């Protein structure tokens, strides 16, 4: 086990730059998730760490060792692939021990290692089967077994769950998390699924177009996204973005949202210093669906973090736990998360509470957080 | 409802007629192809007297394997009257190494071209493909010079080399197209497991290549066994392959024309390729279509 450092790592294929100066550092035992839409460079970054591709520039270190020019087999890493990449001609047992065999580990030790891993992953009855005789979930386990058996410094996962059906994906997600807690190993995990990223990571690196957008703990990324891309990408349903103006409302900052009829004025609960420069200017007001709810108790009291406003309801989408309520403000569809027993009927007008302690403001031009 | 019934009634008649026509055409084609074979087999089983008396298509009255025995053991090729068996073994000694070597090299080429893509891999592949379209006749003279310089002229090893070089284009094409459909992640996983170029090839890639190996072997064996031009040009006299010997037997101008021996010799020459198709034919079709549809 070891820490991992990426220092100004760049990767270009000819004139096309797919990774632009990536700086990342994780401690021993951390679970790093690289997340982003397809084509953002996250898989390339993983391949660079694995040594399957070489970086154009910059330094990659495992512990204190610079591994840029080290062959993949000598990096002491193990990788789980999206397609599992099990060797079709070998039994599960052979698949798991292949790496050990190549490294010249004795047959006795290999048997013991397989037994341990099989027990850990509960694949003992499968050991003498061929990969073609396994289900998707079982293949997934074998692929993890192949990585685990080597006891590497760092585990690399390349979208390991994306080929599984929804139910199994959730189960395996929990299992990977349990495994990480039990083994305390360092993991780098690539996914395009933000829920996987949030649930698994100790730290998330959000990427887009080869640029690292934000690198932080899941909660910080969720609550304080660096820019509108991160804000929109993390969280489901996505954060609502509303064009607004920051105004000085009798000595207190507020956002004012234009709409047919009367504008909505939402006084801010907190006003950091950085907001001052934007007074009187256009901003993008970002609020997550759970920040917009039915009218809360205590929202009428002075000093409350909740601000109430009325709006007509367009559509409702019950999910069971909550009812997603779509309202229209300033020509944009806004999603609010309402308790099912307080859910309105479409066409009705109702009072919503906006939780002003959980909002973000963005610069409409740079799309960066203010 | 009534309309529907009439409709299906009509279709039934139409179907029967069309099906009948289809079978008729197929039977005609089959007969067209089978007839020469039947004539050959029946002639080879007749005595020379019977051939002179009877008509071409009549079946043998007395079945005799004398002609086969004569062709195998005694027929004269040029001035040597050793039968065709010597040349049969010449062909075996030429075809087996040439098939194995060209298949093996094709497999390595295909593997390197798809899984270890180097700069210019596409150009190399394009050039190899180009080799498939070079007619035999074009290379006869330069090839004989090369063989002469290598000291391989008029020898079986020389012939093996010619066939390997010529077959390489085809076998590479086969294997390359097959390996394109094998996920790259397999090679990546093995690389991380610590396996190198040849370990991955031997332990992972080759064991899953059976269908395409069969295709390559059948193709190469048929090509090499049936080749006449290279055999006649680069291996003369006692080293000649069976096809050349067959020609020499059939085209002998002295003495009585022994049709039964000619037929038997021709059938003996064609038998090995036939056998390969019968044994591995179903893999051939399977291998040719493998990779064209993604599972």
Automatic annotation (TrEMBL), chain A:
<dbReference type="InterPro" id="IPR003439">
    <property type="entry name" value="ABC_transporter-like_ATP-bd"/>
</dbReference>
<dbReference type="Pfam" id="PF00005">
    <property type="entry name" value="ABC_tran"/>
</dbReference>
<keyword id="KW-0547">Nucleotide-binding</keyword>
<dbReference type="InterPro" id="IPR040582">
    <property type="entry name" value="OB_MalK-like"/>
</dbReference>
<dbReference type="Pfam" id="PF17912">
    <property type="entry name" value="OB_MalK"/>
</dbReference>
<dbReference type="InterPro" id="IPR015855">
    <property type="entry name" value="ABC_transpr_MalK-like"/>
</dbReference>
<dbReference type="GO" id="GO:0008643">
    <property type="term" value="P:carbohydrate transport"/>
</dbReference>
<protein>
    <submittedName>
        <fullName>Sugar ABC transporter ATPase</fullName>
    </submittedName>
</protein>
<comment type="similarity">
    <text>Belongs to the ABC transporter superfamily.</text>
</comment>
<dbReference type="InterPro" id="IPR003593">
    <property type="entry name" value="AAA+_ATPase"/>
</dbReference>
<dbReference type="InterPro" id="IPR012340">
    <property type="entry name" value="NA-bd_OB-fold"/>
</dbReference>
<dbReference type="InterPro" id="IPR005116">
    <property type="entry name" value="Transp-assoc_OB_typ1"/>
</dbReference>
<dbReference type="GO" id="GO:0140359">
    <property type="term" value="F:ABC-type transporter activity"/>
</dbReference>
<keyword id="KW-0067">ATP-binding</keyword>
<dbReference type="GO" id="GO:0016887">
    <property type="term" value="F:ATP hydrolysis activity"/>
</dbReference>
<dbReference type="InterPro" id="IPR017871">
    <property type="entry name" value="ABC_transporter-like_CS"/>
</dbReference>
<dbReference type="GO" id="GO:0055052">
    <property type="term" value="C:ATP-binding cassette (ABC) transporter complex, substrate-binding subunit-containing"/>
</dbReference>
<dbReference type="GO" id="GO:0005524">
    <property type="term" value="F:ATP binding"/>
</dbReference>
<feature type="domain" description="ABC transporter">
    <location>
        <begin position="4"/>
        <end position="234"/>
    </location>
</feature>
<dbReference type="InterPro" id="IPR027417">
    <property type="entry name" value="P-loop_NTPase"/>
</dbReference>
<dbReference type="Pfam" id="PF03459">
    <property type="entry name" value="TOBE"/>
</dbReference>
<dbReference type="InterPro" id="IPR047641">
    <property type="entry name" value="ABC_transpr_MalK/UgpC-like"/>
</dbReference>
Automatic annotation (TrEMBL), chain B:
<comment type="similarity">
    <text>Belongs to the binding-protein-dependent transport system permease family.</text>
</comment>
<protein>
    <submittedName>
        <fullName>Sugar ABC transporter permease</fullName>
    </submittedName>
</protein>
<feature type="transmembrane region" description="Helical">
    <location>
        <begin position="94"/>
        <end position="113"/>
    </location>
</feature>
<dbReference type="Pfam" id="PF00528">
    <property type="entry name" value="BPD_transp_1"/>
</dbReference>
<keyword id="KW-0813">Transport</keyword>
<feature type="transmembrane region" description="Helical">
    <location>
        <begin position="120"/>
        <end position="140"/>
    </location>
</feature>
<dbReference type="GO" id="GO:0055085">
    <property type="term" value="P:transmembrane transport"/>
</dbReference>
<keyword id="KW-1133">Transmembrane helix</keyword>
<feature type="transmembrane region" description="Helical">
    <location>
        <begin position="263"/>
        <end position="285"/>
    </location>
</feature>
<feature type="transmembrane region" description="Helical">
    <location>
        <begin position="160"/>
        <end position="179"/>
    </location>
</feature>
<dbReference type="InterPro" id="IPR035906">
    <property type="entry name" value="MetI-like_sf"/>
</dbReference>
<dbReference type="InterPro" id="IPR000515">
    <property type="entry name" value="MetI-like"/>
</dbReference>
<keyword id="KW-0472">Membrane</keyword>
<feature type="domain" description="ABC transmembrane type-1">
    <location>
        <begin position="88"/>
        <end position="280"/>
    </location>
</feature>
<feature type="transmembrane region" description="Helical">
    <location>
        <begin position="200"/>
        <end position="221"/>
    </location>
</feature>
<dbReference type="GO" id="GO:0005886">
    <property type="term" value="C:plasma membrane"/>
</dbReference>
<feature type="transmembrane region" description="Helical">
    <location>
        <begin position="21"/>
        <end position="41"/>
    </location>
</feature>
<keyword id="KW-0812">Transmembrane</keyword>
């Amino acid at each position: 086990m070891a820490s991992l450092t990426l220092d100004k790592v760049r990767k270009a294929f000819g004139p096309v730059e797919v990774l632009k100066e990536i700086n990342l550092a994780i401690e021993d035992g951390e679970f790093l998730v690289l997340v982003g839409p397809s084509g953002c460079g996250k898989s390339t970054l993983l391949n660079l760490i694995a040594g399957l591709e070489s970086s154009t520039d910059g330094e990659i270190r495992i512990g204190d060792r610079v591994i840029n020019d080290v062959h993949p087999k000598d990096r002491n890493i193990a990788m789980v692939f999206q397609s599992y990449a099990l060797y079709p001609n070998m039994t599960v047992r052979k698949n798991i021990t292949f790496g050990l065999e190549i490294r010249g580990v004795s047959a006795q030790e290999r048997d013991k290692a397989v037994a341990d891993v099989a027990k850990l992953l509960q694949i003992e009855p499968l050991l003498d089967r061929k990969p073609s005789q396994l289900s998707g979930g079982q293949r997934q386990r074998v692929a993890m077994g192949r990585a685990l058996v080597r006891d590497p410094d760092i585990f690399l996962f390349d979208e390991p769950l994306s080929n599984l059906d929804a139910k199994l994906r959730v189960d395996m997600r929990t299992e990977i998390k349990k495994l990480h807690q039990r083994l305390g190993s360092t993991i780098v995990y690539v996914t395009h699924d933000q829920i996987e990223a949030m649930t698994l990571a100790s730290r998330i690196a959000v990427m887009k177009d080869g640029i690292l957008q934000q690198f932080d703990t899941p909660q910080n990324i969720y609550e304080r996204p660096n820019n509108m891309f991160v804000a929109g990408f993390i969280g489901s349903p996505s954060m609502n973005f509303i064009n607004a103006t920051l105004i000085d409302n009798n000595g207190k900052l507020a956002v004012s949202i234009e709409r047919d009829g009367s504008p909505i004025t939402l006084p801010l609960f907190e006003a950091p210093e950085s907001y001052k420069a934007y007074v009187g200017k256009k901003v993008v007001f970002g609020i997550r669906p759970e920040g917009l709810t039915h009218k809360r108790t205590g929202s009428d009291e002075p000093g409350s973090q909740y601000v109430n406003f009325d709006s007509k309801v367009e559509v409702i989408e019950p999910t069971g736990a909550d009812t997603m309520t779509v309202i229209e403000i300033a020509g944009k569809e806004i999603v609010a998360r309402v308790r099912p027993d307080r859910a309105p009927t479409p066409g009705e007008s109702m009072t919503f509470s906006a939780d002003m302690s959980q909002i973000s403001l963005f610069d409409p031009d740079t799309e960066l957080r203010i | 409802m009534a309309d529907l019934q009439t409709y299906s009634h009509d279709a039934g008649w139409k179907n029967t007629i069309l099906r009948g026509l289809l079978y008729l055409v197929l039977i005609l084609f089959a007969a067209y192809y089978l007839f020469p074979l039947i004539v050959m087999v029946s002639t080879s089983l007749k005595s020379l007297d019977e051939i002179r008396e009877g008509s071409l298509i009549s079946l043998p009255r007395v079945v005799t394997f004398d002609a086969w025995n004569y062709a195998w053991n005694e027929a004269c090729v040029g001035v040597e009257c050793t039968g065709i068996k010597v040349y049969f073994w010449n062909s075996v000694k030429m075809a087996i190494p040439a098939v194995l070597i060209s298949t093996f090299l094709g497999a390595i080429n295909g593997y390197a071209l798809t899984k270890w893509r180097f700069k210019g891999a596409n150009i190399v592949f394009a050039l190899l493909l180009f080799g498939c379209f070079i007619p035999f006749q074009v290379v006869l003279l330069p090839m004989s010079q090369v063989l002469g310089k290598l000291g391989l002229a008029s020898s079986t090893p020389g012939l093996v080399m010619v066939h390997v070089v010529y077959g390489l284009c085809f076998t590479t094409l086969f294997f390359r197209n097959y390996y394109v459909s094998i996920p790259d992640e397999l090679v990546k996983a093995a690389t991380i497991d610590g396996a190198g170029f040849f370990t991955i090839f031997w332990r992972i890639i080759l064991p899953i290549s059976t269908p395409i190996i069969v295709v390559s072997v059948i193709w190469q064996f048929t090509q090499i066994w049936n080749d006449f031009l290279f055999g006649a040009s680069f291996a003369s006299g006692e080293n000649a392959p069976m096809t050349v010997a067959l020609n020499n037997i059939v085209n002998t101008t002295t003495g009585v024309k022994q049709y039964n021996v000619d037929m038997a010799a021709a059938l003996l020459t064609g038998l090995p390729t036939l056998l390969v198709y019968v044994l591995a034919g179903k893999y051939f079709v399977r291998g040719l279509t493998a990779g064209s549809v993604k599972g």
